[in-house]
Amino acid sequence: MAGELDTFPRLLLHHAQVRPDRPAIREKDLGIWQTWTWKQVEDEVRALACGLAAQGFKRGMSLAIIGENRPRLYWAMAAAQSLGGIPVPIYQDAVAQEMVYVFHNADIEYALVENQEQADKLLEIMPQCPQLKHIYFDDARGMRHYAQTELMSFDNLQAIGRDFDARNPEFFADEVAKGSSTDIASMFYTSGTTGNPKGVTHTHHALIAAGRAGAEMEGLDPSDEVLAYLPMAWIGQNIFSYTQSYVVGFCISCPESAETVGTDMREIGPTYYFAPPRVLEALLTQVSIRIQDLWWGGRKAYAFFMDLARRVGGKILDGEPVPLTDRLLYMLGNAFVYGPLRNVLGMSRVKVAYTAGEAIGPDLFVFYRSIGINLKQLYGSTETAVFVCVQPNGQVKSDTVGPPVKGVEVKVTESGEILIRSPGLFSEYHKNPEATAEAKDAEGWFHTGDAGYFDGDRHLKIIDRAKDVGRLADGTLFAPKYLENKLKFFPYIKEAVCYGHQRDMACAFINIDFEAVGNWAERRNQAYSGYADLGAQQPVYNLVRECVEKVNQDLAADPTLGGSQIHRFLILHKELDPDDGEITRTRKVRRGFIAEKYAPLVDALYGGKRECFIETQVRFEDGRTGSISANLQIADARTYPVEAAKKAA
Amino acid sequence: MQHARKIGEPILTVEGVSLSFGGVRALQDVSFDVREHEIRAIIGPNGAGKSSMLNVINGVYHPQDGKITFAGKVRHDVDPHEAAERGIARTFQSLALFKGMSVLDNIMTGRNLKMRANLLLQALRIGPALREEIEHRAAVERIIDFLEIQAYRKTPVGRLPYGLQKRVDLARALALEPRVLLLDEPMAGMNVEEKQDMCRFILDVNDQFGTTIVLIEHDMSVVMDISDRVVVLDYGRKIADGTPDAVRSNQAVIDAYLGVSH
């Protein structure tokens, strides 16, 4: 046997031997899908690795990889790993200056980039990063007039490599043989909203173990198809499109360009798919718009079948019993609505689809499941090589992320923080022992910083960041973001800010969605003069109250969080704005700041007042400041008795 | 601008061209030349005769006086079909695309002159016609890739935003593999970002394929940034000719653009 299959290069050689003619990677180029088999990929990687070696790339060195999903960039990962080096994929949309830190932190001397755009960035930062000596580029377009000696085309690099290989035929195999599963296989920089990014290092063993556990659970096989369309620098993309492809031997396809993903997806028909909620949302919006354009009969039929799907589609997918008439109707719908819909979405062949990254609205989640797409949530992070929890087939609930994957230990601390220990755990934060020590304790538990708990079925439920979770005065768990997300899933509510830590009840500030509520008001012939006026109207308050009460009703079913139902709320007179410091640029509400700024409102909520006067400074887009004032009314929402724990927890 | 390509001998020369429509004298005794591989701009205020000049070059209008020399051949007037066959392609200010046809088909029409198989074979898509079509399609795909319009291959042109339609128009002209490309206000009606993209494409075409480019534009800043030499027309007469810097500081040009008190 050719050694253990415990490093990526060995997996590559293995596939080249057992399935030499099976496709390994595809790319659409000049309108046609070009395919490379596993044998061809081995040859390409070998030439590239030898080229890098001839250029002085040695064990332990880092190779920066920057660009969209391209076969050659994937080969560069394998080539660096073959030589015992560490590929460091970097987000292709990062601006040049953002890359400087990474190049210093990882001591990067070699970089392989996609095109002129990326090469320009590296040339720009070169004076700041004197150690950077070699830049290789895939696409030669526009590069003809660059005279810098550091630059070399991918083709030339491979030509050097082939020459080197011919003179040192044993070299490549020897280098692969030297590799150990405990070597660092890759480094991923976490975006880091505060401070500098952290380089998360993973060994071959960690990535392969995580990828293998996921693949076994879902029964992936070499005939599976994946579309590689998310950034290579994101660990999920690496796991789904590189690690698991190498572990299982399935083929991945690189889209022609970022804009053609929709078409490419229809052409490839992936069987294994990942999409963050925002992508799923955008796809659904596209579908909805096109349905609006149908003639009325079509719209009616669509509404009828979607209603049916909502009732029984999920159950059919989970194999639960459904009345015969519904089952027959669903089959009819499948022929005329759901099937064509899946086809348009490029999801006809999807066996497993994952979503993760942020909370997904139940309606959105149920839509995909109801039309027969096996969409599931998973939980993980860069440090855990993605797979921590996955919803098992047939046991999918819209508000949990499922039980831990085989081999992963999860425990929840007293304070509600989730700790993880697994073979897929990261080694360390590169050159940052303090951060490593903080995140990973002596027993090897990784502190995620997320708060959650296990529900009655041992499914993990993520509720918030641990540092934001508080308790009501009576000790009930209070997770503001969880409540806010639930509120924001209603189209009429744009933002919500919940308070309750060490208080006797939870209360909320609401920002209405001006467009959605405005439309709603217009349809009812209800006049309004602007944002503040619309938000202050009684019918709008009633509309929002319904949403809040719906949330309370949901919460009542949850024994852990049921006590944190929202008792009182108010609708703010202005939209929360990053210019006023109320939310971050990435639209995260800054609860503490808002509580201080609107202290009278918070007092009014808890002081039992019916209304409250508030005056606020605002900054206009042109930089001028002004003030707006309003008399806000404060409304009560009905709360519901909390159900006792259904099953023994 | 730095160009690595070598600017060669004049490929197109216009000498003493005059054109009038009844009493309106659109062009009066205009002469200039265009050298191989250069980017040559014709600028001027509205009604200066820029589009007329372009139409004379590719044979849409026949001037009353003067001669045009293209690649060594002297003509008093040119036939548009002949101009196209000899390697002069153009784009239009008010786009002339087939709105209901896909982007791909629109660009394929640009290959029309290069198709050799007879109509019947083409209609049946057999034998040499099929081989030829594959070749042409490959050429068109290279242009699609070059202009980054892969996402719109199958989209009817009428559904595209204006900036992209302009790009398709350019693609169709490029499909002819022209020696000289005439661009009639390629940036008209575009926003800043679209203008920047278009500038980049024009420079890339010139650089990558060595295509000689004659462009009309009234956005001065764009022209000055990308052209090698500029001709300025005003009321049908040539008032200046030279490098962008020379033209910019020319008093006659400043007067024409800003107006003078009489």
Task: Give a brief rundown of this model.
Chain A has 649 residues and is α/β, with parallel strands linked by helices.
Structure write-up:
The complex is a heterodimer of chains A (649) and B (262). Chain A is α/β, with parallel strands linked by helices and 649 residues long. Chain A has 3 domains: 8-221 and 229-248, ANL, N-terminal domain (Rossmann fold), CATH 3.40.50.12780; 274-429 and 437-465, Luciferase, domain 3 (Roll); 469-636, ANL, C-terminal domain (GMP Synthetase, Chain A, domain 3, 2-Layer Sandwich). Helices cover 39% and strands 21% of the residues of chain A. Chain A has 21 helices and 27 strands. Chain A is globular, with a radius of gyration of 27 Å. By secondary structure, chain B is α/β, with parallel strands linked by helices. Chain B has a domain at 10-87 and 178-258: P-loop containing nucleotide triphosphate hydrolases (Rossmann fold, 3-Layer(aba) Sandwich). Chain B is globular and about 65 Å long. The mean pLDDT of chain B is 88. Classes of the chains: A alpha/beta (649), B alpha/beta (262). Chain A binds chain B through residues 29-32, 141-142, 144-145, 256-257, 259-260, 263, and chain B through 2, 4, 137-138, 141-142, 144-145, 148, 150-151, 153-154, 204, 207-208.
